[in-house]
Each structure stands twice: as structure tokens, then as C-alpha cells.
Amino acid sequence: MFIMSEDSQRTQGRDAQSSNIMAGKAVAESVRTTLGPRGMDKMLVDSGGEVVITNDGATILNEMDIEHPAAQMIVEVAETQEEEVGDGTTTAAVIAGNLLGEAEDLIEQDVHATTIVEGYHQAAEIALEAIAEQVQEAEVDDDVLKQVAESSMTGKGTGGLTAETLAETVVEAVRHVDTDDGVARDNVAVHTQIGASSNATELVPGIVIDEEPAQETMPSEVEDASIAILDVELEVRTGEVDAEYAIDSIDQLNAAVDAEESELSGYAETIADSGADVVFTTDDVDDRVSSALAAEDILVFDNIGSSDASEIASATGASRVGALDDLEESDFGEADRIRTENFGDDDLAFVEGGAAAEAVTVFVRGGTEHVVDELERAIGDALDVAATALESGEVVPGAGATEIAIADRVRQEAAGIEGRKQLAVDAFADALDVVPRTLAANTGQDPIDALVDLRAAHESEGRAGLITNGEEVTIDDPFDYGVLDPADVKREAIESAAEAATMIVRIDDVIAAE
After folding, report:
1. Is the per-residue pLDDT at 126 higher than 90?
2. List 34, 59, 90, 438, catalytic entry
3. What are the φ/ψ torsions at residue 326 (nearest 5 degrees)?
4. Residue 58 reports pLDDT greater than 80
5. Nearest-angstrom CA–CA distance, 453 and 445
6. Shortest CA distance to 364 belongs to which of 189, 146, 183, 149?
7. Which domains does the chain have, with CATH numbers?
8. How large a percentage of the chain has pLDDT more than 70?
9. Cα–Cα distance, 101 to 98 (Å, whole number)
10. Has 56 been annotated as catalytic?
């Protein structure tokens, strides 16, 4: 009796578990060498020949063409980590892969998957308690935020800029959007532009959009601008039905032309009389209208995207207007300055400052597309972790110190757990050791020797990480070197890795339809 299609494939029991665990471990292994300040880069080439060079875990996993469903779950771990806290994607994926590896060893010892899952859940709870104990007592001020941002970017491609220099820009941007209701991370944008050294990267107190004026004769800069945002077509109105008009004389032709001119000049007069200095519209503007507005020194941008219009409205306090007759001064937004600049083949509009301005943009420069892409990823991660640290007010030591502390605490608690579940809790602690071991391997150290030394230093000093200072690698207190991570990054990595690993371990039957 056939219950499924003849083309269906079914894998059960140990074979299913082994296949899924192997796939998850393979994905984790693919990003392991990118971890830490000495992590290596990956070159990803798609079917069209487009090249991406990065050591960002989330980017690598997103660019890989992964089909295995269990492997996809590890990718989802990185995606969740990226969405929630913005960094720690490689750490989360690597921990998830090693939790699977430890689970595989336990399964071979006839430890039931349910026991492993229960042990992992209990160990994760202990780990979260251990993270809380590692939180720095000092206030998260600007210096701490700079250290968090710099730690996030160390080892990533930052062009000719140092991570320390970029960290100052990142903190300034995050502070700009720090409100009583929390950090408005969405109000910080990153805009890239090739054609200059990365040293030209700057913070723009406003937004940057890829737009050029509707007419070259319009002013290139307007200060103390009153801004109107329209969803209006400033062209001759046409009927919705195709129609033809017979003109029998030159007088009728002139009357038709005059009617058009009157309609278009009416648009220009309405805008000029409103008092607007700058107009953004999501629709078309007739050349005659834009010429008339240029004569009034009014700067116009047409055919802008709806998302750009919304960003400008949010940044300047303007209201989008759907009919020209409804335009009133109360709909205007304000900006200290609006300017346009040409960068090779690209024209950009800068909307800067203003009493109602809430947005800020990190304007990233670089000599090549690869440089600015990697800079954008590094700065994006740094912005996320700085915002996370500022909002939570909690940071923990980096450089593998937190993982060493967590593993030590989990092992201590495991001694009081009865039955085979103790094996799973111990295995969880062993899996966490992958972070310091990988950091050591990526710096050229012997992973086993480094792990032993880290554990000994943790026992004697209470806090120990693998510090990379130039070419020198030492074991010391990360707090003394400013190597810090937001506590929420560690929490999210532990939770998402444990969740994915336990979900995969519980699968003992895979049914695939052809």
C-alpha cells in the first residue's frame, strides 16, 4: 500500500538525525574562520559573476545557496540574531553548530534526544544567569559606547579608517536618535558613495537621497528651507479616455496652447505663493512648470520614491499633500539647509538639520564598491550594537571571556543535576568553548593551550579573554582593553542557538517530495 507518492523520499531514525546534524555543522563550519579580530574573509561569487567579499556571518549565510532544510535553520539563527541585536551572527551560528556536534556524540552514547533537549534548555537558563553576573557595573556612557562599537568593527573591512575613528561617528549618530522613548535606530541611515577615500566618511545631520534638481538652473543650495512634499502630477491634465479634438483654425490652436500654459503657470503660481522654498514630489513635473519655479529660485525634485518622501517628511516635520489646492503653510517641513552635490555620474540631495529633524545619515565613502559595501556592513553592525547597549545599559566582556565564564558556571551547576541530563548540560558547556577556541585558532594560537590558559586565568582572576593588540595576543581582562559586547548580543546568541539545535535534534523523520 502506497501512502506517499512513489517519488517521495523518507529518512528515519539515526540516519535522519545524522543527516540533519551534519548539515547544521557544515553551515556553522563555513563561517567559523571569520570569527574575531583576526577572522578571515570569504569571497562569494553568484551565478551571474557578482562578487561579495566579507567576513560578516549574516551576509555570508544569506549569500550562500543553501537548500538543506536543517542547514536553513542555522541560517535562520543568524538572521534572527541580525534582526534582534545586529551583531553576533557568527557566534550564534558557530555555537549552534557545536551544540549539534555535542548532541551527535550523546546520541551515539544512546542518550535520548528528549533528554538532550531538556538538558540544553536547563543549561541555557543557567547560561543566561551567568551572563547577568558578567555585566559591567559602570554606567554605559559615550566612552563605553565607543568601545562597544569599536569591538564590533575590529577585524572587519573599514578601508583606510580605523575602527576607533568610525566608532566616534557611530556613537554620535546613536546619540542623535536617543529619545525619552528609547533609541530610534530606524532614524539612522547609512548611505554609500564610491569615488573617494574612506577618510571622507562623515555624519550628515539629516538624510541623503539619490536625486537631482528638476532643472539645472535651480539653486544648488537653500538655507532655512520651507519644504513642501507633494503626491501631485504637475503636468497638463489628461482624460482617462482616449479622445481626439478637431482644430479648424489657428485661433483654436492658440486657445488650446493658452489653456495649457494657463494651467501650468497656475501650478507654478500656487507653489510660489505658498512660500515653499523646496518642493519634493513623487510624480512628474512639466518642464514649463519647473522652469517657472526655477525663475522663482525654488528648488524642485520630481519623481522621488514614496519611501524617500516618507523619510523626508519624518526628518523635516512636513506633511505629504495629495492635492495642490490643499497645500498650506502648516504642511511645510523645515530644514537648516538643502544642498545638491554631484559625485561623478551620481547626483545627491542632502536634507540637513532643522528644528523638527530627527534623522541622521552616515555618509560612507570608499574607493571601490567592495570597500563601501563592507564599510556599510561594519557600520551597520556597530550602530546596532551601540543602540542595543545604550538602550539596555548592559555590557559584558568580549574576547571570549563571557563564554568562558558561562561554560564554567554551567559545569558547576551540572554537578548537581541527576541522571543522563547532566551529560547534556556538560555538553552544552563544552559547546560554548568553541568561541574562545576559534578565537585562538584565528589568531594563530594553539586552541587547546589557549583554552587551558583562559580557564586558569578565569579561575584566578575572575575574568579572562584572549586580547589581540596589534601582533601581540595576550590573556587578560577585556574590560581593561575596552573589548566589550552588549549583554543582549550574548543572550540572543545563546537562546537562538539552543532553540535551533534542540529543534534539529528532535527530528527523527524527514519526508521529502520530489
Report:
1. yes
2. 90
3. -90, -5
4. no
5. 11
6. 189
7. 10-136+396-511 (1.10.560.10), 206-356 (3.50.7.10)
8. 88
9. 5
10. yes
As a whole number of angstroms, the distance between CA 423 and CA 414 comes to 8
Residues 6+ apart with CB under 8 A from 380: 86, 190
* Distance separating alpha carbons of residues 427 and 413, to the nearest angstrom: 13
Centre a 10 Å sphere on the Cβ of residue 433 and count the other Cβ atoms it contains: 19
| Residue entry with cell 553576573 | 133
What confidence tens digit (pLDDT) does each residue in 79-105 have?
Answer: 888 778 877 888 888 898 889 888 888
pLDDT for 440: 87
CA atoms within 13 A on the CB side of 56: 27
| Annotation marks residue 381 as catalytic | yes
Our CA dihedral for 209, 215, 217, 219, rounded to 10 degrees, sits at -30
For the record, the C-alpha cell of 348 comes out as 545627491
pLDDT tens column, 223-249: 888 989 988 888 765 544 455 556 666
pLDDT of residue 245: 55
Q: Select which of 34, 56, 91, 286 is catalytic.
A: 56
In sequence order, what are the residues at sequence separation of 6 or more whose Cβ sits closer than 8 angstroms to the Cβ of residue 395?
A: 135, 136, 140, 144, 148, 389, 484, 485, 486, 487
Q: How many CA atoms are closer than 13 Å to the CA of 411, on its beta-carbon side?
A: 12
pLDDT of residue 127: 92
| 316 is known as an active-site residue | no
Residue 244, classified by CB atoms within 10 Å of its CB into exposed (0-12), middle (13-18) or buried (19+), is exposed
Q: Is 178 labeled as catalytic in the residue annotation?
A: no
Cα–Cα distance, 507 to 125 (Å, whole number): 23
Residue 329 has a pLDDT of 85
